[in-house]
Write a structure and sequence with these properties.
This protein is mainly α. It has nine helices and no strands. The longest helix is centred in the middle third of the chain and has 25 residues, at 60-84. Residues 15-75 form the HTH tetR-type domain. Residues 38-57 bind DNA. Keywords: DNA-binding, Transcription, Transcription regulation. It holds the Pfam family TetR_N.
Length: 212
């Protein structure tokens, strides 16, 4: 190469650089949680110069926040998929109960199969405002929290859950299921066998359902 030859760039331009960086961030989070999301590594994986990321993310925290929202969306997709696999029910009440339990089963399945994304989903401050909700929703347009609320509303509509017990029920159900998820992912239950974790999931959902 002579001095007159053009310098070949090792990077390339994306049609949607923000999405490319976000996908790279999700890959990093899947492997190591939010701590593994590094802006320079995301740009390397996206194949762009390091300073190109600052057009879309002001700093690492901004990228981690976007990854958290996207990971929450992946959680919503898993919960929707769990509901989609339900067999036909004999009646509205049975169907509502099954959809409600599928929300919890999908939540815990995601935590166990995608621990890195699960950690990332609940890292930082997610206000879940209208703008953020759109980025953390599943295919049906609902966030995990909204999917739980919709399942509870179905229980009320079918007469399974007394309307007087509906206010705030999502906070109680979420707290119980999330607590077990954390114990299975990062707590003293992380070493239990899969079949034992499945049975614990079933028993916890039995308890929540009876409590409601």
């Amino acid at each position: 190469m002579t001095s007159a030859d053009p310098v070949r760039r090792s990077t390339y331009r994306h049609g949607n650089l923000r999405q490319a960086l976000l996908e790279a961030g999700l890959e990093l989070a899947r492997a190591g949680g939010h701590d593994a999301v590094v802006l320079r590594e995301a740009t390397r994986r996206a194949g762009v110069a390091a300073n190109a990321a600052y057009r879309h993310f002001s700093d690492r925290d901004a990228l981690v926040h976007a990854v958290s929202l996207a990971a929450m969306g992946e959680l919503a997709h898993t919960m929707e998929a769990e509901q989609a696999t339900l067999p036909p029910s004999t009646g509205p009440a049975e169907a509502a109960r099954a959809r409600f339990r599928a929300v919890g089963t999908g939540y815990l399945r995601f935590a166990r199969t995608e621990p890195g994304l699960f950690r990332a989903a609940f890292y930082g401050r997610l206000d879940m405002t209208a703008a953020e909700a759109a980025e953390s929703a599943g295919a049906g347009g609902l966030t995990p929290f909204q999917l739980l609320g919709a399942a509870l509303d179905d229980l009320v509509a079918c007469g399974v859950l007394p309307a007087a017990r509906r206010p705030g029920a999502e906070f109680l159900a979420w707290s119980a299921v999330h607590g077990l998820a954390v114990l299975l992912v990062d707590g003293p239950l992380r070493a239990v066998q899969p079949d034992q974790a499945d049975e614990t999931t079933r028993l916890l959902l039995d308890m929540v359902e009876r409590g409601l």
